[in-house]
Write a structure and sequence with these properties.
The chain has helices at about 30-45, 65-70, 75-85, 120-140, 190-205, 215-220, 225-240, 250-260; strands at about 20-25, 55, 60-65, 90, 100, 105-115, 145, 160, 165-175, 180-185, 240-245. It is α/β, with parallel strands linked by helices.
């Protein structure tokens, strides 16, 4: 488990903003546990045991397969291709097709209580994609919301650069009393994304234009992970009264029980 130095920022006039608990711990050597932590938070938020919570982390290298991938007749071949490419194979929490996480990406997992989660799908998508877009614009990226034709794990709320390169994708999972929005922003290492997704998507029988997979560093070569992370947190503080906190022991214990369910066979 690792935690980065805290990012502190005074926010004026936060009394009108909803509170948000922020976690920034990731799990380098157990990718399935990293996913299970987000699921455990969602379950505890739905049960009223935790407030609205977001994880913003630097994840380990993994290909995250969606439900459609898991149901595919070629799923085993996709898993094999991911592992041969040096990536763990896990089953993701949010929807969509296979996506890539690695050490130069930022993983997003946002769980919020909601008595009508189905009714708020599009507002959640709009808020989250807009937040990422504005965070990248802070840095000088020509960031836009929308699908790039031929992108991996396609979605109308992807965030791209110049309408040409996918930088981030987001998906959702709904349960009773809560909604989860998960995503990944590629800060650097777009070649790693392409190199592993080409054989994975070929194995799954999916279309994918490798030229659409980009990164923030492709647009801003000198950018660092911390700079991108801080830009996102600054934008997050415009929306929420953010309080950074460590993971609760009960959350971690639940995640450890759930983790085997997220490991691809």
């Amino acid at each position: 488990m690792r935690a980065r130095p805290g990012y502190e920022r005074e926010v004026a006039g936060t009394d009108h903003k909803p509170p948000l608990r922020l976690h920034r711990q990731s799990f380098d050597h157990t990718p399935e546990l990293d996913v299970a932590v987000s699921r455990a938070i969602l379950l505890r938020v739905a049960a009223g045991e935790l407030p609205e919570t977001m994880r913003l982390t630097w994840p380990p290298a993994m290909v995250a397969f969606g439900r459609q991938d898991v149901a595919s007749a070629n799923y085993a071949e996709g898993v094999k291709a991911a592992r041969e490419g040096g990536f763990a194979a896990i089953e993701r929490l949010a929807g969509g097709r296979a996506a890539v996480f690695h050490e130069q990406t930022l993983a997003i997992a946002h769980a919020r209580p909601d008595e009508e989660p189905q009714a708020h799908i599009y507002p959640r998508f709009e808020e989250s994609s807009g937040w990422i877009e504005r965070g990248l614009k802070r840095l000088g990226v020509d960031a836009r919301v929308g699908e790039v034709p031929g992108e991996y794990c396609p979605g109308g709320y992807s965030v791209n650069a110049r309408g040409e390169k996918k930088l981030a994708g987001i998906g959702q999972k709904l349960i009773k009393h809560a909604g989860h929005l998960g995503g990944v922003l590629v800060v650097d290492g777009s070649a790693r994304v392409r190199d592993v997704l080409m054989p994975v998507y070929e194995a799954l029988g999916l279309e994918f234009d490798p030229g659409t997979a980009g990164s923030v560093a492709d647009e801003l070569p000198s950018v660092t992970m911390l700079e991108v992370e801080q830009a996102l947190i600054e934008e997050l503080c415009e929306l929420y009264d953010v309080e950074e906190a460590p993971l609760e022991p009960d959350t971690l214990a639940l995640a450890e029980r759930l983790a085997p369910e997220h490991r691809s066979p």
